[in-house]
Write a structure and sequence with these properties.
- The structure is a homodimer.
- By secondary structure, chain A is of the alpha+beta class.
- In chain A, 20% of the residues lie in helices and 38% in strands.
- The first copy, chain A, has six helices and 13 strands.
- In chain A, the strands form two sheets. In chain A, strands 1, 2, 3, 4, 5, 6, 7, 8, 9 and 10 form a ten-stranded mixed beta sheet that branches.
- In chain A, a hairpin with a 3-residue loop joins strand 9 and strand 10.
- The longest helix of chain A is centred in the last third of the chain and has 16 residues.
- The radius of gyration of chain A is 23 Å and the shape is globular.
- At the A-B interface, helix 1 and strand 5 of A face helix 1 and strand 5 of B.
- The first copy, chain A, binds a DNA duplex through helix 6.
DNA sequence: AAAATAGTGTCTCTGAGACAATATGAT
DNA sequence: ATCATATTGTCTCAGAGACACTATTTT
C-alpha cells in the first residue's frame, strides 16, 4: 500500500524522516505488589499455625522518602514492555521467575513523585510459599515481608444533586518483625444519574513512600474481588496442600471466616485430590490436593 | 523530618538539586474506547427497533496507518493525569462531559507505534443515546460510529509440560454505513502449575490502525464481564427507559438472548419505576424506569 | 379480532449457608 | 480416653432457568 499523505510521502518515507517531537515525556515505572502467604509460629505443635498475607517492601536508601518503605519497582527501559520490566524487577528482588502476574492499574497523579513527572504502571504478583525460600538469596538487605491487614474503618454517604458520594475508608496496617506502618486509604464512589467513578485517596500515611499505600489498597481490593470467582488464590499455595490450608488462605485474604462444608464444595472443581496425606500432625492426617489445571 | 542521605542532603535540598536523568522516556498516550447503543431502522413502526452496540473510530489523516481507522486518543500532557487526558479527548471528540469512564489496560508492546516508543493507557467510556445527539456538533468529519460484532471463532487447547495453553480466537467486525472493518484477536491463556497469564494477540487485521483491535477486544471483554455483576449497562441508557430496552442492551452486549422473567428479577434492584409510560407504540404501553442510584 | 408487546406466575433445579454427625491419628 | 483436626451428610432457603399465562394498546 503506497498511500501518499498531504506532503506526498509514502508511509515508509514518512517513518524514515520522522523525528520525535521535543515535547516533554514522562518517566514510566512499574511498581510491584508481591503477595505471599506465610505461617506464624503455632502456640502448640498440635494446633495448626495461622496463615498471614504478606507483601514485600523495600526500605528506600535515597531521597525522596529516604528510609520510608516502598514497593519494589523501577523504570521501564526502551525495548521492553511494562510487563517485562515487572518480570525483571520481580526476579531481581526475589530471585523468582514464572509466577502469577497481573497488571493492576496505571497511576499518574501529578506530583506523585516529587522529583519529576512519573507514571507508574502497577502489577500484582502472587508467590507461593515453596518459592519463597529461594528469596533468602537476594542482596537487598533492606527488603522485608510485611504482614497485611486491610479493614474497613468508616463509611460515609453524602447526597448531592442527582446522586451521591460514598466514601469507604480502610485502614491499611503493615507489620514486619521490626516495624509497623499504617495508612488510611479512602475509596470514593461518585454516582450521578449520568456518570459513575471510583477513586482512591490517601487520607493518612505513616511510613510508606510515594502513593504506594494507594497501590497496595488497589491490589488487595483486586485480590479480594478475584478470589471469589477465579482460582487466583491457588497461586499462593505450594504444589501440595490440604483443603484446610487453602481455606485459611481464602480467609486471610478476605479477612473473614468461612464455613468448611460450603468452602469445600466451592473449591471442589479448582483442585484435584492426590494419594498423599499429611503426617505426624498430632491429629488425624489430611489429604493433600493439587491445583486443577482445568479451570 | 530532616534525614540526610549519603551526600548529606535533606530531602528538600535533594529535590532542589535534582535533575532528571537523560535516559530515554516513552511518549504516553490515552486511547478511548467509546461505546454507545443506537437503534436501527425498524421494519415496521409496530415492531420494536433492534439495538446496536457502537464504537467511535476516527479515520487517520496522516501517517502512519494513513486512512485506517483508529480509536480517539492523544498524548498525555504534563500536569494532567491519564484520566484527565481521557476526559479531554472525549470532550474534544464527542462534545460530551460527565460520562462513565474506566481505565482498561496499559499497552506497551514494543513497536506498537512504528514512529517511536509509545505506551498507551486505554480507557473505556459509555455514553447514553440522549447525549449522543450532541455529537453532531463535532468537527471531525472523519469520525464514525461503527456497529460492533465480537464473536468466538475458534477454540484451541494445547497441552504442554505441567499445564496447557488455551487459545480463544474472536472475530471482531466493525461496520459503519460506508465501511466494514474486521480483525481476528486471540486471547491466550497459559496455565502452568505455578503461573498463569492471559495475553491478547492480533491474528489478522483489516482496516484498524496500530494495535487498536486488541484494545477494542479488551474493552468488549471488560464490558461483557461487568454487565453481569454491576449496573454498568445503565450508563448506556437514557434517563427514562423501558425494561425491554434495558434487556435489549444487555442482549446486544452479551450477544445472547435472555429470558424476560429472569432478566426482570435480576435488574429489579438496579432500576426504579416511574409513573410514565411509552405512548403511541402500536401496542401495549410500557412503564418507564430510571436508574436506581442505590447500587 | 388480530398484532404486537408488556408484565406476572410458578415449577424446578442448583448452590450457598448453617449446623450436625462421624472419622482418624497422636498423645 | 482425650485432643485436635478431617471429612461427610443433610436441611433449608434464595436465586436462576424455563415456560406458560394474562394484560393492554393500536390497527
Amino acid at each position: 500500500m503506497d498511500l501518499l499523505d498531504k506532503d506526498g510521502l509514502t508511509e515508509s518515507e514518512f517513518l524514515k524522516q520522522y523525528k520525535a517531537g521535543d515535547y516533554e515525556r514522562p518517566s514510566v515505572t512499574t511498581d510491584m505488589v508481591i503477595f505471599t502467604v506465610t505461617e506464624d509460629e503455632a502456640d502448640s505443635y498440635r494446633k495448626l499455625p495461622e496463615k498471614e498475607l504478606r507483601v514485600l517492601l523495600i526500605r528506600r536508601g535515597a531521597h525522596p522518602f529516604l528510609s520510608k518503605w516502598a514497593l519494589p519497582g523501577g523504570f521501564v527501559r526502551p525495548n521492553e514492555t511494562t510487563e517485562q520490566a515487572a518480570v525483571r524487577e520481580l526476579c531481581e528482588e526475589t530471585g523468582v521467575e514464572d509466577v502469577y502476574l497481573e497488571q493492576l492499574y496505571t497511576f499518574s497523579d501529578i506530583g506523585r513523585d516529587p522529583r519529576t513527572w512519573v507514571i507508574s504502571c502497577s502489577y500484582m504478583a502472587l508467590i507461593n510459599s515453596d518459592k519463597l525460600e529461594l528469596k533468602a538469596g537476594d542482596d537487598a538487605a533492606d527488603a522485608a515481608w510485611f504482614k497485611v491487614s486491610y479493614r474497613p474503618l468508616r463509611e460515609q454517604k453524602e447526597l448531592i444533586v442527582d446522586g451521591y458520594i460514598k466514601t469507604l475508608e480502610y485502614e491499611l496496617k503493615l507489620s514486619s518483625e521490626e516495624e509497623e506502618l499504617s495508612a488510611v486509604v479512602a475509596r470514593t464512589m461518585t454516582a450521578k444519574t449520568t456518570s459513575t467513578g471510583t477513586d482512591y485517596e490517601i487520607v493518612s500515611n505513616d511510613g510508606l513512600a510515594f502513593d504506594h499505600a494507594k497501590i497496595i489498597a488497589c491490589a488487595i481490593d483486586r485480590l479480594r474481588g478475584k478470589v471469589n470467582y477465579t482460582d487466583i488464590a491457588l497461586h499462593l499455595m505450594p504444589k501440595l496442600f490440604t483443603l484446610t490450608e487453602l481455606q485459611q488462605v481464602y480467609e486471610v485474604i478476605m479477612d473473614k471466616e468461612l464455613l468448611k462444608a460450603a468452602f469445600r464444595r466451592k473449591v471442589a472443581d479448582l483442585v484435584v485430590e492426590t494419594d498423599h496425606y499429611t503426617e505426624n500432625a498430632g491429629h488425624r492426617p489430611s489429604r493433600l490436593y493439587r491445583r486443577n489445571l482445568e479451570g
